[in-house]
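Workshop exercise sheet. Pairs work together: one partner reads the sequence aloud, the other fills in the structure field after running the prediction. Swap roles for the next sheet.
Pair: D.N. / O.F.
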Amino acid sequence: MKPLDVIVVGGGIAGMAYAAALIDSARNRPLRIRVLSKAPVAGSSSHAAQGGVAAAMGANDSFELHAADTMMVGAGRNDPDMVELVVREGPSVIHWLERMGAVFDKDATGRLEMAREGGHSVARVVHHRDRTGGEIVRALRMHLRNAREVELIEGQHVLDLVVEDSPLGRACTGVRAIEYASGDLLECRSDLVILATGGAGQVYEHTTNPIEATGDGIAMALRAGVALRDMAFVQFHPTALYTGERGQTPLISEAVRGAGARLLRHDGRHLMSGLHPAGDLAPRNVVARAILTEMRSTGVPYALLDASPIGSTYFAQLFPAIERECRSHGLAPGHDLLPVMPAAHYLCGGIAIDDRGRTSLSGLMALGECAGSGLHGADRLASNSLLEALVLPQRTALASWAFAPKNAAPRLPGVVRSKLSRQKPATALRAQAAIRHAMSTHLGLLRNRDGMEAALRVVAHCERVIAPMWMRRRWSLELINLRDLSAVARAIIEGALNETTSIGTHHLEARQTVAA
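Structure field:
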């Protein structure tokens, strides 16, 4: 029997959970899984996830309540069937992780300790201190470490999908990837390709995402004609630590506010007073816009987070990683007021998938943040992202055996004549900066049509810059990233222009005239 040959693009939680679930479902059937990751797995967004996994497991909780909270935060734009499916699987994926060796915080009675985060009506977030993502990655890696079926290949940057016509129609039959060490362009074939490449926070000037979050999976799917959904909805986390620098920004978990910290104005008044019944734990788009309003009214590029109700000693026990990060910037949580600002955090849409991870292209599936399942709607409920990244891979793994196209036997990686340039072209760097500035200015928490159209003109100019550079096939990492960032930026802008009313993360302000 010919092995099922699968390429997984991305080494975060969604990709590894899929690999683990596919092995579990094999039942002695032959299987080969290649996980291609452009960066070390420890650098993924999911590895850095602080909060936890939302799961309705408490005595005062229910699947119906979890679903209602998800729909409320998503402003009703969610797919209700997907919401019900995912929330009902929450407890089972927690037990699955525990069987693999994941350790979650427990109370004095030995029961799972639940944290409360924004938008949740009860405490339901299962966590491992403030390093839940890292703990899940550790457990998955340990589980896969000795799996003969899995080959983890770090340092390969997938550029595009291989798409071919067959008697059964168009199908994805593999990927083309640059190998960092050699600079070679490789072509790898498979029965199935699973995109689990994460988000696109690097399209903005300030983001909680790592530098690898360039939206590459979404961009390559878009170039292959694959359908997207909900691209207008970009979630900004309200409380990134203000450092005065652009790029990746340290995150102050929502669980800090769940433990009692309060947002303050610069005059000492409570920031969220009278703005929302849930106060500091209102949905993220509400809190983020309140902070932005304070920043605009004062001219100070941050608001203040007061963790003194938690106390410095207890803060260090609950949030050791955040405490260390703050101290590295000269701040003592519980004693000092923490400067916080909104930063791009999560893309609520992405590659359109069904409840088994299937896309509009045969042979291609998508999971995690790069996928648009309809779970999140117009805004994401806190800690539903890790839940989705654990539930849907299991369903996708089971479906993979039936939905793999009958491709020809996979060829060994072939080298295509091209080399990765080690130079950093100034033109590409300037174009990246222009896109990030345009997106931050016009496609952030507050938007208007003139501004969005101005941002689209910036992207169009950058696309004209990219085309001749790409044709010369002297590809640098900066040019590769620019190509992906421009594609994702265009998709976000065009999605936003199609949303004519304010909803969720997409908030329209009065029309303004903006110079091109």
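Discussion prompt: The mean pLDDT is 93. What would you look at next?
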